[in-house]
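User: Here's a protein and a ligand (4-nitrophenyl phosphate). What would the complex look like?
Assistant: Let me lay out the input and then the predicted complex.
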Amino acid sequence: MTTTILFVCLGNICRSPAAEAVLRHHAPDLRIDSAGTSGWHVGEPPYGPMQQAGARRGYDLSPLRARQFAAQDFDRFDLILAMDADNLRTIEALRPAGRDTPVRLLTDYGPERADHVPDPYYTRDFDGTLDLIETCVAGLCADLTGA
Ligand code: 4NP
């Protein structure tokens, strides 16, 4: 069974910390982390409006701090889940030779019409993004437990 999961977005202050908090809520025993392909917000807590949207649904994002994705993450996690195709390409470009850690889109576990998690830093639709993350994380949990 997959036990260590890394969520990756661009800034690590909106989508991937939200996904981290949602999965932790459902699966407190899994080792879960998140990272950004950029280093723009390293050390910062999740974006305020994202924290607030999460808190309204019972997800505590406040302890999280942004970090940048690194090639060593291929050794540290069983599954890496990107929020969009740009993230996925950046991650794959850092894959060390010989590592076969799967990198997938989070939306692979969600409704067929979704091919990326929209970035609420730009759309401002924090609840819409959380809706999609919740649906995809439920699909991920079903996949992990073989349901
Ligand atoms: P995220 O959203 O990738 O979901 O964390 C972003 C947050 C900040 C920026 C871009 C995306 N930014 O340009 O600062």
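Summary: Helices lie at 15-26, 48-56, 73-76, 85-93, 120-123, 126-144.
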